[in-house]
Specification:
The structure holds 2 protein chains of 2 kinds. Chain A is α/β, with parallel strands linked by helices. Chain A has helices spanning about 20-30, 35-55, 60-75, 80-90, 100-115, 125-130, 135-140, 150-160, 175-185, 195-210, 240-245, 265-275, 305-310, 325-330, 330-335, 350-360, 375-380, 385-405, 410-420, 425-435, 455-460, 470-485, 485-490; strands spanning about 95-100, 120-125, 145, 215-220, 220-225, 230-235, 250-255, 260, 285-290, 295-300, 445-450, 465. In chain A, the strands form 3 sheets. Chain A has a 6-stranded parallel sheet, sandwiched between helices. Chain A has a 4-stranded mixed sheet with strand order 8-5-6-9. In chain A, β5 (about 220-225) and β6 form a beta hairpin. Chain B is α/β, with parallel strands linked by helices. Chain B is globular and about 50 Å long. Classes of the chains: A alpha/beta, B alpha/beta. At the A-B interface, α1, α15, α17, α18 and α19 of A face α1, α2, α3, α4 and α9 of B.
């Protein structure tokens, strides 16, 4: 269903969808034991740390409720807050640009860089710029964008794609990283796979970039509407180098990143670090309002399907997300399939509800089904996004979309027939009686070991019991009849 | 006390031993059990697969079937959760206000088995006898949607002869997830394999849970891998006595 005809993300631009459906894309990770071990180790470690960091706070439930309420207020009054933010940023010497989609945002940023006549820019880790595929767009314009977040740099040097929101290189271990550095960092020299040695090599490589670049690009974790303040939280300090050294700063930010007042940051600066890195406080919090003296500052406000997401009352809470990754770290599906399987820069449970909404459910149609609905994601979400219910809702939108396109679908016919049987007690009783015939399937082994498609997907790895000789309801009817012989005796 | 048994379509059609055990247990505890035959499915299968419109008449039928009962008991955390969290939502989605009201009136009277025993009947020792080494897998919907907490464990601990062993990573999903097991069979199986390895690590002879559906998955996996561990529903353990002991033939798969 398309709500009010609002535009979704530009098809084919940026990093919101892959070219394979989830079950197929997941296969690569499932059959890679090294990757399975890397992921299981990394996610279980961070999972336990997060649980401890959250347990320290008595008022976590209240903080979480406050976070959800503040974001809901922002989403309900986004039009007003955005104009307020624009006015504040402008009043403080910044320039605000509005981008309807990825293509428009890339055009704006490319134009701003070209006006400065540079061919290399440094970048702060940013999901929004990954979402729009900015690096690729800049490359086409002859501009090299250097990632300065360590993990993001690793992924960039490897020519790979990030597989986690917070830990983009979670799928790589340190010896793999050493090999990437040795190959792509000519100045690195002899390298061991010690984390300190790897960090030192990256530090030397990046320092030269910080000191020579005149343009930096960042995202934003928060934007305070009341003051026009932008905030970036990080662990390494490399972000701060980019935010302060170059004379031009361009920030690309999704329109939902707003908080109304300075004071609201109090809530999110507690929720975010504990949920993401399991820290009480993140090491670096950089905040700036408008242009610092001598600096040129541009803010690009990005829609790219967010207004379309906002239009669905049962899906819009996905825009509360503060990109902490807690849901990825607890998700048993993510842990086994890995981030690349989702095809989007937003993987895991939040990606499964966000990506299809940003692109429209016709694209990313397999993602809402990439969940066992175990509910672990909802329990850890710091802004209480009911991801399982949203997945279920989006599944119905996918089904509806397929129906609208008149796609032939045996599943729809099968489930419709099943519902037809189930909605009449007479038909249902009879259907269960008939199911007895299925007993023939398990004659040899006493259980069913093979079924034709689509149930073969079950019997490929699990047995099924034979249908019983008697359904429960027939047993019950029989028992009731025996219990009242007098009534039965009557003709 | 008279209660209606919410059988669940899975127990009715494929795993009747689970429902029979629930009846035996409740009757032994002095509860009069009724089985309204108008019931079929709670609608969760259709709702979670993306077909809420097909689920609507099922929800209507289910709500009507149990309308006159003060207490409804189900041997499933997942189906109970569907009643509590999904049925009224489906009615609301299609604008059936009468059904919304009826669903909301019914929901608080529907209990998962361990909730009913501990909270309504106020018992933890149900007088069962089960001389086996048992491990318990908390199913996701009982754990996170119903928050049954340690109720099943308290019931198991009170069973005579039963040795309870803790399951590592117990709260991780077994990978069933309804049609997830069919739509993402390889990820589902990877989750199942990890769960089976944990179960194997306990040295238990029996893995139990409060949901026949998850046990169908776990039991089906155990059976395929030639394991000697049996998947047994909580109701079956609690129904077993010295005079009517559990028999291996009653295992889920």
């Amino acid at each position: 269903m398309t709500f009010l005809g609002l535009p979704t993300a530009s098809p084919g631009v940026g990093g919101l969808s892959g070219d394979q459906a989830f079950p197929d894309a997941a296969r690569a990770a499932l059959h890679d034991p090294q990757l399975r071990r890397n992921l299981a180790h990394a996610t279980s470690t961070i999972r336990a740390k997060r649980a401890r960091a959250v347990a320290e706070l008595d008022d976590w439930a209240q903080l979480r409720a406050a976070g959800a309420a503040i974001k809901d207020d922002v989403l309900a009054n986004l039009d007003r807050y955005l104009l307020q933010l624009e006015a504040q940023v402008t009043a403080r010497g910044g320039t605000v640009h509005w981008a309807r989609d990825a293509a428009e945002a890339n055009r704006i940023v490319t134009g701003l860089i070209q006006a400065k006549a540079v061919t290399e820019v440094v970048k702060v880790k940013s999901m929004a710029t990954q979402e729009i595929g900015l690096n690729e767009a800049l490359e086409r314009a002859g501009i090299a964008a250097v990632e300065t977040d360590l993990a993001e740099l690793i992924v960039q040097l490897a020519g790979d794609r990030p597989s986690h929101i917070l830990v983009p290189a979670i799928h790589l271990n340190r010896s793999e990283i050493r090999d990437i550095f040795a190959r792509r960092m000519p100045d690195a020299g002899e390298l061991s796979d010690e984390p300190a040695a790897l960090a030192e090599a990256a530090r030397r490589h990046l320092r030269a970039k910080f000191l020579t670049s005149t343009v930096a690009i960042s995202g934003a974790n928060f934007a305070v509407a009341e003051t026009g303040t932008l905030a970036v939280v990080e662990s390494e300090g490399n972000g701060r180098m980019c935010l302060t050294l170059p004379s031009t700063l361009i920030t690309v930010m999704g329109i939902e990143k707003i908080v109304p007042t300075w004071r609201d940051l109090e809530v999110f600066l507690q929720l975010l670090p504990r949920s993401s890195t399991a820290e009480r406080m993140n090491p670096y919090t950089s905040m700036w309002a408008g242009a610092t003296e001598g600096q040129d500052f541009h803010l690009v406000l990005l829609d790219n399907g967010r207004t379309a997401t906002l239009a669905d009352p049962r899906g819009r809470a996905a825009l509360r997300c503060i990109r902490c990754s807690a849901c990825l770290n607890v998700c048993p599906v993510y842990e086994r399939a890995g981030g690349h399987a989702y095809g989007s820069v937003y993987p895991g449970p939040i990606g499964a509800v966000l990506s299809p909404q940003l692109t429209g459910v016709g694209v990313n149609a397999s993602l809402p089904f990439a969940s066992s609905l175990c509910g672990a994601c909802l329990d850890v979400c710091p802004v209480a996004i009911d991801i399982p219910s949203m997945l279920v809702h989006l599944r119905s939108r996918v089904v509806e979309e397929k129906r609208r396109q008149h796609k032939l679908d045996p599943e729809r016919a099968g489930l419709h027939a099943l519902a037809w049987l189930m909605r009449s007690p007479g038909r249902w009783t009879l259907a269960l009686r008939t199911a007895r015939l299925g007993r023939v399937l398990g004659l040899r082994h006493g259980r069913i070991r093979w079924l034709p498609r689509p149930l073969q997907a079950w019997t490929d790895s699990r047995d099924l019991p034979r249908p019983p000789a008697q359904s429960f309801r027939d047993w019950w009817i029989h028992r009731e009849e025996q219990a009242t012989p007098d009534e039965q005796a009557r003709p | 006390m008279r209660v209606a048994l919410f059988v669940t379509c899975l127990a009715d059609g494929l795993l009747p031993e689970v429902a029979k055990a629930t009846v035996r247990l409740l009757e032994r505890l002095g509860v009069e059990v009724a089985v309204p035959l108008e019931q079929s499915c709670c609608g969760q299968l259709h709702i979670n697969t993306g077909y809420p419109k097909d689920a609507l008449p099922l929800v209507r039928r289910q709500v009507t079937a149990f309308e006159d009962f003060e207490h409804v008991v189900s041997p499933s955390g997942s189906c109970t959760a569907a009643v509590r969290h999904q049925q009224a939502e489906v009615a609301r989605e299609f604008g059936d206000e009468g059904l919304v009201a009826a669903s909301e009136a019914l929901a608080p009277r529907v209990f998962e088995l361990s909730e009913f025993l501990v909270d309504v009947l106020g018992v933890s020792d149900v007088g069962a006898y089960f001389p086996h080494r048992v491990t318990y897998h908390p199913t996701c919907h009982a754990l996170r949607l119903l928050r049954v907490g340690d109720r099943p464990l308290r019931l198991l601990q009170a069973v005579e002869g039963l040795e309870l062993v803790e399951l590592d990573d117990a709260e991780t999903c077994c990978g069933f997830g309804g049609t997830f097991a069919l739509k993402n069979p390889e990820v589902s199986t990877a989750m199942l394999d990890d769960k089976l390895a944990r179960i194997g690590g306990t040295g238990a002879a029996v893995c139990t849970a409060g949901d026949a559906s998850c046990l169908l998955h776990i039991g089906g996996g155990l059976s395929r891998r030639g394991s000697s561990v049996a998947a047994v529903h909580l109701a079956q353990i609690l129904a077993a006595t010295r005079t009517e002991p559990w028999r291996a033939a009653q295992a889920i798969v």
